[in-house]
Amino acid sequence: MALFFDRQWFEEKLAERGLNPRIMAAAAGMSEADLALAFKDQRELSAEEVGIFADLLGVPPAEVADRAGVSTPVPGQGDLAGRLGALERKVAALEAELARLKGR
After folding, report:
1. Dihedral of CA 43/48/52/55: which sign?
2. Cβ neighbours around 48 below 10 Å, total
3. 60: helix, coil or strand?
């Protein structure tokens, strides 16, 4: 298990999917500053954020939790409504980012 936030792993996973930290933060409904704190191991991720990042990166929530630090909670597998809400927020954030990029 990782003892600290594994910034390199998260950056590699984002790059593999053609994403960036701004999109990651938007998908989780967090500010870029909050995500930067997490990347610097100065802010712990919530269970909901772990689940959203797992969906975004295409990996199991347990792997995200492990790479984010041992005390980060893993979301419950039975919380379907919460996961659906998180996915809806992620899609909305990605659509907003796409619209912003098209507007350039």
Report:
1. positive
2. 18
3. coil
Sign of CA dihedral 6, 65, 34, 42: negative
Cβ proximity of 52 and 61 under 8 Å: no
> Residue 96: its pLDDT value, please?
83
Using one digit for the tens of pLDDT, what is the confidence trace for 46-74? 888 998 999 999 999 889 988 998 565 55
The two three-digit tokens of residue 16, written as one number? 């593999």
Secondary-structure percent of the chain, ordered helix, strand, coil, rounded to 5? 65, 0, 35
d(CA 27, CA 85): 11
The Cβ-side half-sphere exposure at 87, using a 13 Å CA radius, reads 8
